[in-house]
# Entry
Amino acid sequence: MKLKNVLIVVKDIEKSKQFYHDLFGLNVVLDNDGNMILTEGLVLQEEKIWKSFLGKEIIPQNNSCELYFEEHDIEAFVQKLERLYPPVQYVNKLMTDSWGQKVVRFYDLDGNLIEVGTPM
# Structure
């Protein structure tokens, strides 16, 4: 068995598609009317569809998981993030962990937690 995809819930799939393309270079592999698979295995699911499956409310910024990306030039990434998405909500701005890795954590447009760090 292998893990195939990671699914996140989004309110506006077109805005989220643009966000993940702009910042991480992810492209659409399959667009299936409210369920979109991007490169690297990220799946965007429209909130209304997800709610109908679960029958429960969606809790943004629940801080129970994160999407993790690595970037060599993290300073340039942060500049791009602030230029393209200035209202981004940070969990922590660019910092250096005790083991020397530089990281930044923020929420996407729908409150999904993202971490970008330099490769270890």
Helices lie at 13-24, 47-54, 74-84. Residues 13-24 form the longest helix (12 residues). The beta strands are 6-10, 28-31, 35-38, 42-46, 67-70, 90-96, 102-107, 113-117. The mean pLDDT is 96.
